Amino acid sequence: MDDFLVNISSFPTVIYTTSLVVVIGYWLLAITGTFDLDSFDVGVDIDVDTDVNSLGGMAGLLTTLGLTGVPITIVISLLLLNAWISCYFLSLFVPTFPQFILFIQITIHIVIAIVSFIVSILCTATMLRPLRGLFRKVHQLPKSVSLLGATCRIRSSRVDDLFGEAECQYEGASLIIKVRTTGNDTFSAGDRVVLIEHDEGNDFFKVISEEAFKKHLI
Question: With respect to CATH, is domain 151-217 assigned 2.40.50.140?
Fold first, then answer.
């Protein structure tokens, strides 16, 4: 037991131990009702056929790592848990070096911290696969009902009647959704559009330009 406590409170395991304590505290507060479970969630719903280079930022990084499709709080929790477990067991194999070559031990510990996080990404991505379908069903209803009439910004390099993605704000969260144009209209990255119709079968929204939408209101 003493060895266990020494390991989790020593570098590098203590980095993930501290982070994991914060996450556990968050979940305890969420369970007791102090925090809303969705307070820190960012919904990221990205089609598997998306051009990752066109997304940029956090959405593109999460897609590349396979960490999308579930609330970000669950992603972070699993990342830290897996990193803590990996770091704990890897640290057990590090010998104690003499004081005059202590820098070697520090270097090894830094490498272990980095390797543990990389291993955690791979494990977390695998663990999230069976959960994506579950959360996709949960988030489809409010998205299709509440986003109509919302103004969004085009994220993909182009939007036409066959391809396109846009970024919208929904209850403080940033959503990446599939969009298509009506008629022969086309849009490019940065254009502002308005969602006017939801195709439930193909799960995309039809859009028109913000200017055209305002003209119809006058």
Answer: yes
Q: At CA 131, angle to CA 47 and CA 66, rounded to 5? A: 50
**pTM value > 0.90:** no
The CA distance from 114 to 96, in Å, is 20
Residue type, 102: L
Q: What sign results for the dihedral spanned by CA atoms 23, 68, 207, 148?
A: negative
Pairing of strands 158-159, 151-154: unpaired
Task: Render pLDDT for 15-51 as a digit per residue (tens, 0 to 9).
Answer: 999 999 999 998 888 787 655 554 444 444 444 333 4
Task: Give the span between the Cα atoms of 174 and 59, in whole angstroms.
Answer: 10
Q: Do 82 and 120 contact (CB within 8 A), yes or no?
A: yes
Tens of pLDDT, residues 80-135: 999 999 999 999 988 887 877 888 989 999 999 999 999 999 999 999 888 876 66
Alpha-carbon dihedral 75, 76, 77, 80, rounded to 10 degrees: 120
Q: In the chain, what are the domain boundaries?
A: 2-41+66-137, 151-217
Tokens at 47, concatenated: 């089609």
